[in-house]
Design brief:
- The chain is of the alpha/beta class.
- It has a domain of 195 residues: 3-Layer(aba) Sandwich (Rossmann fold), CATH 3.40.50.
- It contains 13 helices and seven strands.
- It has a seven-stranded parallel β-sheet, with helices on both faces.
- Helix 6 packs antiparallel against helix 7 and helix 7 crosses helix 8.
- The longest helix is centred in the middle third of the chain and has 32 residues.
- It is globular and about 65 Å long.
- The model has no long low-confidence stretch (mean pLDDT 91).
- This is AMP nucleosidase.
- It comes from Polynucleobacter campilacus.
- GO terms for molecular function: AMP nucleosidase activity.
- It is an enzyme of class 3 (hydrolase).
Length: 285
Amino acid sequence: MSPKLPTNNAQTITDFLNPEPHRISEETSAESYKFAFDDEAFLTRRETIGIRFELELLKPEVLLNEHGIDHTITVFGSTRFVSREKALEMEKSAQTVDEKAAANKALLHSRYYESAREFGATVARYNATQDKSSNKLHICTGGGPGIMEAANRGAFEAGDQTIGFNISLPREQHPNPYISPGLSFRFHYFALRKMHFMLRARAIVVFPGGFGSFDEFFEVLTLMQTKKVTSFPIILVGKEFWAEMVNFQQMIEFGVIDEADMQTIHFVETAQEAWLIIQNHYQLS
């Protein structure tokens, strides 16, 4: 029996775009004669993956430079949290036991949404006091709902520029409406999106979240532990959540991390506490 090993375990851009067969055949002179940069079929081939990596890295870099954005604060957290207003609507309209339970959970979690929103507004108010764009810190998120929406929303409502790095997913994630015009980006590759989360980051603020938030958070920790990036504040909001989810002290005692690995991590409860850590670290006025 022949081994049934896959030739490629990743979804290619061709798989994602799902073009008609005649669009990728390039069997006619009309297709082969196209400029390479204008040939979608050619650009979606597996052989051009390196070019697509470069383009996904380059496009946001160019546009962020044009907008004068040098420094960001990247905010991670659950996509599932809603605003207090939305949670109260859910509570009011709940009829069944399950709906009431969902509304109660939404109300409980809405405090994190409102905290992220407050944090975004706090950063925006600081930026309003700065004349030079090189002194400003801009809220950057994954561009989706939940905590991402909340942080973008707080900055946007306060009149500041705010950035969203969205990603193509099987269930399409649409950009939230609080990202500034020209600063909403779409990625196919998680790796390139994560690079942009880090390239301008001067702090990472992580609210309670699921697999995606943990993936992003631990990648940042790994980069710092291995000295791939300069250390900066990593702020975890919600002390009870983080104490229950990750026993950092046990990791130290077990010998898999060092005390020094925890020096960049700060545990806080409020948006103001998070901002104070950043303010003190960079001696901001």
